[in-house]
Design a protein that fits this description.
Blueprint: E1 4-5, H1 9-15, H2 33-38, E2 43-46, H3 66-75, E3 78-80, H4 86-95, E4 101-104, E5 119-122
Parallel strand pairs: 1-2, 2-3
Antiparallel strand pairs: 4-5
Amino acid sequence: MRPLIRTGRWTWMSVVNPLPIPAEVAGLDASVIPWLKKRDIAVLGSEHAQDAMPYHPDFGEGPMLPVHDFALVILGVHSCDNTNFDELAATAEARNRWKFMLMAAPLSVPGGTGSPLNPIAIY
């Protein structure tokens, strides 16, 4: 399973807030962690770093990005951050098909912990 989370970040930023890093963004709450674990996800993609910001854990001080950190460290899944799913959503809606094969070709970055991707959805 490869959940891709579309929040409308890029549309919102182009209309409301053109700043590159907004202080508040939509995203996942830490309560979804058991759901992600149960489904044995392979890749998690989002238009931010998966988590809603700012994050205010009910249990006091906690990790800044609990979903992002859990997915990377505990689940060991690949994370696609800061993606733009607007065109993908429009294509899926036009085709009335929400399942597709996802291919992504990262650049080779020696010693790097991340890389730009060229994700491709194949219907």
